[in-house]
Amino acid sequence: MRDYNSELSKKTGMPPGTLIHVGDKRVEEPKLTLVEYNGDNLEVHVSQDIDIIKDLEFAEDRKIWINVDGLHQTELIESLGKLFGVHPIVLEDILNTNQRPKTESYEDYIYVTIRTLFYERLENTVNSDQISIILGNNFILSFQEMETDLFKKIRQRMERPAGIIRKRGVDYLTYSLIDSIVDNYYLLLEDIGEEIERLEDELINEPSPATLQNIHELKREMIILRRSLWPLRETIASLQRDESGLIKESTDIYLRDLYDHSIQVIETVETYREMLSGMLDLYLSTVSNRMNEVMKVLTIIATIFIPLTFIAGIYGMNFEYMPELKWEWGYPAVMIFMATMAVIMLYYFKKKTWL
């Protein structure tokens, strides 16, 4: 994940509500997607100009969903905020892409910010994008850092006239958007789980310094992942407790199910963190055991050669009067004795299961 510390310095000394984009430029030009719908009709308009929204007359019996891909043009975000009466503080939070997941209730709308996460297997990192959602009386505004396929299936479901999204209010569409983000977490955790299994196999079969580095990198990403997901539970709970009337009672049951999913995601993250911590201990134990095996073999070899070296040292002292030096069978006798001693020691070590 990217570091925002240097980017936050842009806002130093600025008054509250100052609109400055904090984050990366993810798209060349922002794209607006306007969806007007009810039970009978569905109209989709795509443009890079906010005039497409200003020129439309919104019918009271139709619901509106405006999605913005790309946040670096602050003028566009400011114009949308004025058009729908969004407070500058909220617009400032939308442009500051370092927000933690949260839900804030205002007089006429609810502001929700949540993070979508993607696992880059080749780089062994987790990338994060901020998604902001504003739920009004008859409209939804959603803001993404870049264009993704995250809401593609929701748009496909909206094309069916008999679909539940077309029949229900914008609060149900808000639930659907958040549910799509949470479902994406399962895909992320599945990819991370496969990587953890691969590291476990590598750790048991042939651990290396690269294995340790991969474990450390993944453990660091899990810490950042936990920080992004831990507030998710309270974010959804705040939607359940909202008393503004924008969340209908019929949507509460879906939010409860979404709350359960958020708990499952958080528990899975905690499980993976514990597994990675255990893998670090396993790596150290494996390396220590391998070192012990090497040292055991070297110690046995050295122990066998100690008496052999002692015997060779005795007959290498070059004294003139040593009886065995003049003996015809002295050399083969000494060699046989040394070999026999080595065999006896090997048998003893094996019997003691030291070998």
What this model shows, in words?
- This protein has 355 residues and is of the alpha+beta class.
- Helix content is 54%, strand content 15%.
- The longest helix has 66 residues, at 249-314.
- It has two domains: 5-285, Beta Polymerase, domain 2; 291-351, Methane Monooxygenase Hydroxylase, Chain G, domain 1 (Up-down Bundle), CATH 1.20.58.340.
- It has eleven helices and seven strands.
Keywords:
single chain, 355 residues, alpha+beta, Beta Polymerase, domain 2, Methane Monooxygenase Hydroxylase, Chain G, domain 1, 2 domains, 7-stranded mixed sheet, 11 helices, 7 strands, rod-shaped
Backbone shape: rod-shaped
Radius of gyration: 35 Å
Note the run of SSEs as H and E: HEEHEHHEEEEHHHHHHH
Q: N-to-C terminal Cα separation, in Å?
A: 49 Å
- Name the CATH class of the largest domain: Alpha Beta
Number of helical elements? 11
The proportion of strand residues reads: 5-15%
The CATH superfamily label of the largest domain reads CorA soluble domain-like
The CATH architecture category of the largest domain equals 2-Layer Sandwich
Give the uncertain stretches in residue-range form: none
> What oligomeric arrangement do these chains adopt?
single chain
**What characterizes the major β-sheet?**
7 strands, mixed
**Count of all domains:** 2
Please give the order of strands in the largest beta sheet: 2-1-3-7-6-5-4
Helix and strand arrangement:
Layout: H1 5-8, E1 31-37, E2 42-47, H2 51-54, E3 63-69, H3 74-84, H4 88-95, E4 102-105, E5 110-120, E6 125-135, E7 139-144, H5 152-158, H6 164-167, H7 170-205, H8 209-229, H9 232-241, H10 249-314, H11 330-351
Parallel strand pairs: 3-7
Antiparallel strand pairs: 1-2, 1-3, 4-5, 5-6, 6-7
Helix pairs in contact: 7-8, 7-10, 8-10, 9-10, 10-11
